[in-house]
Amino acid sequence: MSLSSSLLFSAISVTIFLVLFSYRVDSQPVLDSDEQESAYRVLESVNSEVPWRALFPGDLCSSAPHGVVCEFFEEQNDAVEVHITELSFGFVSDYSPNPPCTADSTINPLLYAFKHLRKIFFYKCFTGAQVSVPDFSVYGSSLEEISFVENPSLTGVLGGKLGNSTSLRRLVLTGTNVSGEIPVGLGDLVNLEQITLSRNKFSGEVALNFSKLKQLKLLDLSENGFEGEVPESIGGLTELLKVDLSENQFSGKIPESLKNLKNLEFLDLGYNHFANFGIPLFLAEMPRLREVHLSGNFLGGQIPEIWKSLRGIQGIGLSGTGLVGNIPASMGFFLRNLSFIGLDNNLLEGTVPEEFGSLESVNEMNLENNKLRGKLPFSPKFAAKMGEKLKLQGNPELCVDEGLRSAKIRGSLGNLKLCRHPYGPSQSLFVGGISVQKASHLLMFLGFLFLLP
Fold it and tell me: InterPro entries in the record, alphabetically (predicted)?
């Protein structure tokens, strides 16, 4: 092909591209004027100090604030329309610079005009005058996410306001004054993957049947006023990764059905009124647990030998649970990934196991206010790393050796007395389900039997 022919072909190609591009730009659907006006009104109700119309005078789906998102929809007659599908308000970070809210933010009734809305998100928007919980049922089955985070002036009840939002995947109400009971109809929203209703004013029994919520991965009802027993149906949600029911008034026994949650990584039932007659043994049947918090419930009993099955545990909270007896050496032997352990404010006695001095990954250890005694097994290096996160106060019979005392480590070590006896804690290295100390006693006993005539 000659140079002139090549140039002619290139010119024709560019012309065709420009024509097609111009056609696509000219034919691109624009946001309906009524929907655009509704968006302006909602933006102005969230922050009236910003001149939204002047800053964004054109089609909002072509140029809009960060929190306004549009999508294209193909209608039955092959026509393509554009609608607003996400509204996110309240500055979160530089990575998600949503339109900022002001102290007098309100919810404009035109919020209900967006019939294709999939996500609604408000962060620290309602902090002044009271604002009622919106009626989400008007969105039908389009809504996939509802998030209201840190909105203390949001009030009202949730009952009857979710409708049949069968597409809803995330429901987040945290840090509000929403009250009442959880609506029973929530159990019919089968596509839910997250229910976070923490730090609100909810109360009453949780009468919700969770059995249909097979997709649920996160359940957080913490810091409310819920009472009564925890529904056994939670144990059927095998996709759950996190359960947080802490700081409520739940009572009765911890449901044994929780042992079916084989994928669960985080369990917090702390600071309720559970009376379980000991730490649940079924925890050993939950192999993926990374954190378990049961503090503030009167469980009683001794610490069970279940830690061989929970080697991946990183956090254990058993503060103020009425525990008695010794701390098992197996905790220190098996829990090599442990970062936090809280055994304070119990009735534990005996020495601190020698194996606890080898927990290299631990960042905080709280053994305060027990009846522990004897020499601590910690090296100066271990104690220096822990500093004030090694909490030992309230155990008057604990003591430190001269090496720890001379190291002048910060924290509660400096308040412990110096050991006067040459011996320290018993060497109870945990091997194969029995301590070395017990094994030696057994061998001595068998030797004695062998010598008998």
Answer: LRR_dom_sf, LRR_R13L4/SHOC2-like, RLP29
